[in-house]
Amino acid sequence: MKKNSDKIASNLVPSNYDFLIGTIRSLVEAARQSAARSVNAVMTATYWEIGRRIVEYEQHGEKRAGYGQELLKRLAGDLTAKFGRGFGVDNLELFRAFYLTFPPRQISETLSRKSESSIRNFRGSGRSGEKSESLIRILSHAELVEAFPLSWTHYIHLIRRSRSPEARKFYEAEALRGGWSVRQLDRQMASLFYERIALSKNKANMLAKAATATTADLVTPEEELKDPFVLEFLDLKDEYSERS
Fold it and tell me: Is position 133 within any domain?
């Protein structure tokens, strides 16, 4: 009896059902990936802003030795009590380094290429002497998000592992151009790709090969959603782990 019912059910399914379920799967996976990247972009911009506030506060604070470290310890305690993990001293130091590595002038130049209308409006104000810093302050958080298209983990690698500003800029540009995953970036930095390509006589061929991802380089939508930094930022780590 059950075999007959299964046969009837299968006859009711159109022949293109596989196409239907395939497109729905692709849609959900793409949506999840987009959601994870959106959160990552907002998180990265927020961390830059935190770094900016820390640096500016330090610049107006006491000049005695140890003042900055005492400030970070106090901030870490208060922020951790309010928001949970992700705001320890090490991370606050990283936020500060992130801001110093990508200063307002550089961010302004990046955004100016994406939003010429904002630049024209700013120039019309006549305050050219404060261009980069003022431009950052009048931009919305959503506009600042555009300045950081890579994931927060990408920027951590760029800050901590680059051997020079030139190497960092190269890896950042290639990660953007080639759509490198964090694993690709990690692999290329570990292989000293910047140094090797500087000595190569066939740079175009090396760049083309680097843009090709291996199976191990690929990151699934589920992995992007489970990024520890994203879960910490959203304060979902414990709840997500319990449901997994």
Answer: no
Structural domain count of the chain: 1
Distance CA 141, CA 121 (A): 18
- Residue 198: give the domain boundaries: 2-45+149-243
Distance CA 31, CA 224 (A): 12
Q: Which of 146, 148, 215 is nearest to 181 (CA)?
A: 215
What DSSP string runs through the chain?
-HHHHHHHHHHHS-TTHHHHHHHHHHHHHHHHHHHHHHHHHHHHHHHHHHHHHHHHHHHTS--STTHHHHHHHHHHHHHHHHH-SS-SHHHHHHHHHHHHHS-HHHHHHHHHHH-HHHHHHHHTTT-GGGHHHHHHHHS-HHHHHTT--S-HHHHHHHHHH-SSHHHHHHHHHHHHHHT--HHHHHHHHHTTHHHHHHH-S-HHHHHHHHTSPPGGG---HHHHHT-HHHHHHTT-HHHHHHH-
Cβ-proximal residues to 96 (8 Å cutoff; 6+ apart), any chain: 51, 54, 55, 72
pLDDT, tens digit, 9 for 90 and up, residues 179-217: 899 999 999 999 999 999 888 777 777 777 777 777 777
184, part of any domain = yes
pTM: 0.75
